[in-house]
């Protein structure tokens, strides 16, 4: 079992920035692909970004490409999502995910955090 804890969500105006963090206390994440998904009210959970266990192979949903950047620090067992130029349509609960491997359509063996709310006002 992998416990993931997200932080860094909040309320921001359109055009603003937030940085989400995902930590796994007492657990090594270096063997897992990591990713971020989000779920807006009334919508299905969707892939936002993913990164390979070594830090390579970052990928993004088209809707966030050029605005969001995923990174990881395996020494700190932490994954980050830097979100710039935020838009109201980015409003959602953001979930951290870990899997080996991680797919854009997550498998049943994916580990999830509890989620952190991001609200972007217009």
Q: What would your notes on this structure say?
A:
- With 122 residues, the protein is mostly beta strands.
- Helix content is 0%, strand content 46%.
- The chain is built from no helices and eleven strands.
- The chain has strands at 5-7, 10-13, 18-23, 33-39, 46-51, 59-60, 68-73, 78-83, 92-99, 111-112, 116-121.
- The strands form two sheets. Strands 2, 4, 5, 6, 9, 10 and 11 form a seven-stranded mixed sheet that branches. Strands 1-3-8-7 form a four-stranded antiparallel sheet, with no helix packed on it.
- A hairpin with a 4-residue loop joins strand 7 and strand 8.
- It is globular and about 40 Å long.
- It starts with a strand and ends with a strand.
Give a brief outline of the structure.
With 122 residues, this protein is mainly β. The chain is 0% helix and 46% strand. The chain has strands at 5-7, 10-13, 18-23, 33-39, 46-51, 59-60, 68-73, 78-83, 92-99, 111-112, 116-121.
Largest sheet: 7 strands, mixed
Tell me, what's the shape?
A: globular
Radius of gyration: 13 Å
Number of helices: 0
Share of helix, binned: under 10%
Would you report the number of β strands?
11
Terminal Cα separation, in Å?
A: 39 Å
Assign the structural class, choosing from mainly alpha, mainly beta, alpha/beta, alpha+beta, or little secondary structure. Answer: mainly beta
Quote the beta fraction.
over 45%
Please state the average pLDDT score.
95
Order of helices and strands: EEEEEEEEEEE
Uncertain runs with pLDDT below 50, 5 residues or more?
none
């Amino acid at each position: 079992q992998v416990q993931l804890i997200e932080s860094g969500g909040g309320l921001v105006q359109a055009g603003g920035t937030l940085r989400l963090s995902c930590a796994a206390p007492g657990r090594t994440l270096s063997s897992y692909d990591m990713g971020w998904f989000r779920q807006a009210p009334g919508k299905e959970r969707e892939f936002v970004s993913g990164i390979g266990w070594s830090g390579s192979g970052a990928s993004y949903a088209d809707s966030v490409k050029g605005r969001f950047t995923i990174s990881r620090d395996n020494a700190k067992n932490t994954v980050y999502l830097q979100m710039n130029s935020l838009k109201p349509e980015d409003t959602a609960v953001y979930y951290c995910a870990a899997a080996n491997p991680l797919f854009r359509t997550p498998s049943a063996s994916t580990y999830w955090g509890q989620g952190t709310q991001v609200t972007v006002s217009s």
